[in-house]
Amino acid sequence: MSRRKKPCLRRRNPCTFKVCKAFSRHLLFFSSVFLTFSVNAQSILPQFEDSLSSFQKQLYSANSDKEKMEINSRLKATFERALKSDLSFDYSFDSLKEFGRIYSPDKSFRIISWDLPHTDGTHNYYGFIQTRNSKHKSYQLFSLTDRSSEIKNAENYSGDAGKWYGMLYYKIIPVQVKRKYYYTLLGFNGNDKLTSKKIIDILYFGPDGSPKFGADLFRVEKKFPKRMIFEYSALVVMSLKYNESSKMIVLDHLSPPHPGLQGQFQYYGPDFSLDGFEFKKGQWNYIQDIDARNKKNSKDNKYKDPQDKSKDRDSKTFYKSD
Fold this sequence. Notes:
It is a single chain. By secondary structure, the protein is of the alpha+beta class. It has two domains: 20-96, no CATH class; 102-322, no CATH class. The protein has helices at residues 14-59, 65-83, and strands at 100-103, 109-117, 123-133, 138-145, 159-160, 168-177, 180-189, 195-205, 211-213, 218-219, 228-233, 240-243, 248-255, 269-280, 283-287. The strands form three sheets. Strands 5, 6, 7, 8, 9 and 11 form a six-stranded antiparallel beta sheet that branches. It has a five-stranded mixed beta sheet with strand order 10-15-14-13-12, with no helix packed on it. Strand 2 (109-117) and strand 3 (123-133) form a beta hairpin. The longest helix has 46 residues, at 14-59. It starts with 13 loop residues before the first helix and ends in a 35-residue tail after the last strand.
């Protein structure tokens, strides 16, 4: 009768067992901490949003400039704390209907902007740019400071977060020049009681990740401005959109009702012709008197002009655009 071999039993190293057990405990601890942290971040953001929504209502119902400034100061500080919270980048803050809240198509950043209307009809703008680096899983937050009242020759000015030409953003159009990425921004500025402005600006990011505004990407005849500013009567509406079908920025051509009013922008308005900007050879090239008749885009009906006053309050407000 053959002898049955005894199974070879390796003796367990007690040290190895202790190390594995300790590692498991640490892994469980850190997983628990991360889960708790994530849950806390998710639960605190709705609380921030409730506070911000309350400030928003107070801001646009306040009667005096002093009261508005005080409310806005608290609103901005609260918003900054909220945006510094983990997981805030993907939190939409949907209840802030009066604020611009748009993501870049590549989801690398988003811009939040809002206006503070003064009793004399002028406006100050506030905002943040929140960036995300997917590769390094890191985030940066930049507060935008409106210095538009101090900026001379605004169409040729290069700015940054600390010296920003303030506006409400409603569209981001990414473009590439060689290996560098730029973002074309469409925005609205309420200006004052007499005029409003629609603006095409350029945003790009420096080596340190900080935002920069204005770039030589426009060609208008023999001029190369860093941004385009269209000023017109506050009593009318100007259209400035990006047409997905033709890949062009399409806008109303503005003119005064009489040649003698040339340069007096409070009398300017659409004259029923259209102009456009087409991106070719690394530049937005100006085209006058275009034919914009084309097939309707499915997104056209979703566009809401920030100057639309049909549901507006006393001041000029912003409505989110796709």
